[in-house]
Amino acid sequence: MITHKQLDNGFKYIEIKNKEAEAKIALQGAHLFHYKVKDKPSLLWLSQAAYFEEGKAIRGGIPICFPWFGKNKDNPSLPQHGFARTQLWAVISEEEKDDSTTYIRLQLTPNAHTLAQWNYLFDVTLDILIGEALSIALSVTNTDIKPFEISTALHTYFSVSDIETVLIKGLDGRNYYDALDEKNYIQRGDILIQEEVDRVYFYPSETIDLFDGDTKVKLQQEGSNSLVVWNPWIEKSKQMNDMTADGYRSMVCLETSNAREDSKVLNPNDTYVLKAIVQTL
Ligand code: TA6
Asked: Cα angle vertex 18, ends 31, 9, to 5°?
């Protein structure tokens, strides 16, 4: 079942329920903020203090970062992670493919606001498949007559039972950029998080595994040569109005991206696809 809903403040979202899974997608940002497979815990983390308001990104789920990830290189005063997550997207397709798979396609095209921040013509779509697995694919086409450079992310917040006991596999031996001290390192072994972490890993395995007790979450990436790992920990959380004091303990971001050196230049008519498939095993 696909239902279009609205909060009292006018904030619009789509609710999806099928035999295998349920999900919620906000039209602002094409933001998937809930996904749960039957008899399994919610896969995505959502802050208890998240805003559901026009112009504010939702803290949790899968924010879409486009056309830049992090700070804008040329103008750091522009909004972090680009405008896609606070723009209203259009639903251009919705279909119940079978009783356990639902498909939604959303689209973002330029308007006065996007052109004022980034003077390029583009066609961006997000294809979401809700079923036993979650598939999410961001397609960017350059519809301009000049090339442009993009850096994007599916900034996925995973829900975990206790951050300090979680293990992330698939990054051993990879180079990473540490945004906290702005230096480069090589990862040795699997990742255990017991402090603030904000890193961009390059050339990760195609499959990243997140171990949380008996639960294993498998993340497969396509079109991505970088993966961001982030947890704000205690002090950074205090600086965010949409994080509760202990919210950081139940989340970790594993962000399928093309960040930093992995950014892409698209010539006119080029299309770039960034995709993540996630499944709880
Ligand atoms: O992906 C990691 C990161 O870039 C961090 O540096 C942190 O700022 C985070 O994203 C969240 O950004 P936001 O703009 O949503 O507060």
From this structure: 40
Each residue of 99-137: pLDDT tens digit? 999 999 999 999 999 999 999 999 999 999 999 999 999
pTM greater than 0.85: yes
Instruction: Return the domain boundaries, the chain.
Output: 2-280
Q: Kindly list the catalytic residues.
A: 155, 255
Name, in order, each residue with C-beta under 8 angstroms of 119's C-beta and a sequence gap of 6 or more: none
CB-defined site of ligand 1, < 6 Å: 57, 70, 80-81, 155, 179, 198, 228, 230, 253, 255
Instruction: Categorise residue 182: left if φ over 0, alpha if ψ from -120 to 50, beta otherwise.
Output: left
One DSSP character per residue, 154-200 reads E--EEE-S-GGG-EEES-TT-EEEETTTTEEEE--S-EE-SS-EEEE
Q: 251 phi and psi, to 5 degrees? A: -140, 155
Residue of 72, 154, 155 to mutate, ligand 1, most atoms within 8 A of C-beta: 155
| 136 residue type, one letter | I
Written out in words, the top-level CATH class of the domain with range 2-280 is mainly beta
Query: What distance in angstroms lies between residue 43's CA and the mean position of ligand 1's atoms?
Result: 20
What is the number of the ligand 1 atom nearest to the C-alpha of 57? 15
